[in-house]
Automatic annotation (TrEMBL):
Name the UniProt record assigns to this protein: DUF748 domain-containing protein
InterPro entries to which the protein is assigned, alphabetical: AsmA-related, DUF748
Residues forming coiled coils: none
Pfam families: DUF748
Native organism: Undibacterium piscinae
Chain spans, region Disordered: 329-357
Lineage: Bacteria, Pseudomonadati, Pseudomonadota, Betaproteobacteria, Burkholderiales
Gene Ontology CC terms, in alphabetical order: plasma membrane
GO terms for biological process, alphabetical: regulation of protein targeting to membrane
Length: 515
């Protein structure tokens, strides 16, 4: 043991310095320098000093850290994950430059993000638990060449008790806090501790008041497939860190509100407007990946749907390019794996048997009360309608009670009403189980104007159809939609051939029932 500790103390620093520089150059295309590294085998602590990450020219510094401390926990072996008891960065300095506003903007770190995005993605989640994260005396200089503006953040202090994507224990943790000076003005978020509670609960308040979202969209590091024209964010959230029974949890709770939201696509066509969205978050457990929402309300939403003549929906087109890139990356990864397997077979090497991979934990959602009020949908159809037609659905109201995607959850109660056109109405009252996708309930369609949907009949019917249809039915959807106890009524039905012959009329009320 003494020999092993001595070897690690002597050899590990130089090995880490060399491998870190090689991997950063290979994976990110950047030069990394580390002036000095030391390792304590007794505490499993790695300390690095004089860290610099350079720009592509390999001369200009993009990131520098005076000192970094990483204290590895012996629990890493037990959990088969990266577990650290402490992560400390002293005097980190970041220099950010925005050189273009085209697309999602061009920054001095855009090349790094592009390389990371092109890397093959693994289905196996990277498990980590980092405790006592501290950032001391940090600074960020942001040079916006587009707006000819400079933003300086100095004296940045950050403390997080822990971050983890699996349950783990933490013996002690630092007070959560965030403070900085932004162009000389002080900004501070401090934690609220409960020292006499056995959970050692500490909360960091995240309070925002009418934050203008479009003002910050331009600085996002990744491309958005749409434009945020307007929107204001207000939050009263608590990020809570607690430890109980040797288990550490990170919980988010509180209220979130969005006002006057407007989204457009890249061609400046409208996608979505929301008068107000507000939600009361009971608890979001970031470790267990479980979220409980007490109330979720959307007022005056307006949605634009457009189906083009190729069958592509405008909303689906937003992510089409990204999905194609993912598929190409998967295919390339498969081809590389096959080539490696063939090469190893030629060399007489035995390919190890693939082990089952851990899948990322499914997000468990429980929603007690959801309501949507005064909604509108504009549906433009250039595929099925001849000629193309836009249908407006107004006065949409939706209420959902006790919704959960848990496997053993009861079906949620749903009440939906809408007006497809004037003097028409659609109602559904029933239940829905998201875990099984089963639905059942009462459907009522009143005074649907057939003439309003003539464009959908032109391909199949050489006549003009008019009249009203009403329907009452019991609907059940288990693998397929089934209608029971159905009453259909037709009123003032008229069919006029386009050849100008006498119309076929049904003036009287016609009703039929199907059991």
């Amino acid at each position: 043991m003494l020999l092993l500790m001595t070897v690690s103390w002597l050899a590990l620093p130089s090995y880490v310095k060399r491998v870190a520089a090689e991997q950063v150059q290979q994976q990110l295309g950047r030069k990394l320098e580390i002036a000095e590294i030391s390792f304590s085998p007794l505490t499993l602590t790695l300390t690095a000093g004089g860290i610099q990450l350079f720009e592509p020219d390999q001369k200009t510094s993009a990131l520098s850290i005076k000192k970094a401390v990483f204290s590895l926990s012996g629990a890493s072996l037990y959990h088969r994950a990266l577990v650290m008891d402490e992560v400390m960065l002293e005097q980190p300095h970041v220099h950010l430059i925005r050189s273009s506003a085209d697309g999602h903007g061009r920054y001095n770190y855009s090349d790094i993000l592009e390389r990371i995005a092109a890397m093959p993605k693994s289905d196996t989640p990277f498990r980590f638990s980092l405790a006592n994260l501290r950032l001391q005396d940090g600074s960020i200089q942001f040079d916006d060449k587009v707006l000819d503006k400079t933003i300086a953040l100095s004296a940045v202090q950050l403390g997080l008790p822990f971050l983890s994507n699996f349950p783990s224990s933490v013996d002690n943790f630092v007070q959560p806090m965030l403070s900085a000076k932004i162009n000389g003005s002080t900004f501070s978020l401090k934690g609220r501790s409960k020292p006499f509670v056995d959970s050692l609960e500490t909360a960091l308040a995240i309070d925002l008041e009418q934050l203008d979202l479009p003002a910050y969209v331009a600085y996002l590091p990744v491309a958005l497939p749409l434009q945020i024209q307007s929107g204001k964010l207000t939050t009263k959230l608590d990020l809570t860190f607690s430890r109980k029974n040797q288990r550490a949890d990170v919980l988010l709770s509180g209220d979130l509100q969005l006002d006057a939201v407007s989204l457009q696509d890249k061609l400046n066509q409208p996608l979505l407007k929301i008068g107000q969205l507000r939600t009361h978050l009971k608890q979001f457990n970031l470790v267990d990946n479980a979220i409980g929402i007490e109330q979720f309300v959307i007022d005056q939403p307006e949605v634009w749907l457009a189906l083009d003549n190729k069958g592509i929906l405008n909303w689906a087109a937003l992510t089409a390019a990204k999905q194609e890139a993912k598929q190409e990356a998967k295919q390339e990864a498969k081809q590389e794996a096959k080539q490696e397997a063939k090469q190893e077979a030629k060399q007489g090497k035995q390919t190890p048997e693939a082990k089952p991979e851990d899948k990322a934990a499914k997000l468990l959602v429980t929603l007690a009360d959801f309501s949507l009020n005064k909604g509108r949908v504009h549906f433009a159809d250039a595929l099925l309608a001849t000629p193309a037609q836009t249908t407006d659905i107004t006065d949409i109201a939706l209420s959902v009670k006790q919704l959960s995607n848990a496997a053993n959850a009861k079906a949620a109660l749903i009440a939906l009403s809408a007006k497809p056109e004037q003097d028409q109405s659609l109602k559904f009252d029933g239940e829905f189980n998201p875990a099984t996708a089963d639905a059942a309930g009462k459907l009522n369609l009143d005074a649907l104007q057939l003439g309003a949907y003539q464009a959908y009949l032109n391909r199949f019917l050489a006549a003009q159809l008019s009249g009203r249809v009403s329907l009452n039915s019991t609907v059940a959807s288990v693998r397929q939609v089934k209608l029971d106890e159905t009453d259909i009524s037709l009123d003032e039905l008229k069919l006029v051939p386009k050849a100008k012959n006498d119309p076929i009329r049904q003036q009287e009320y016609c009703a039929c029932s199907m059991a």
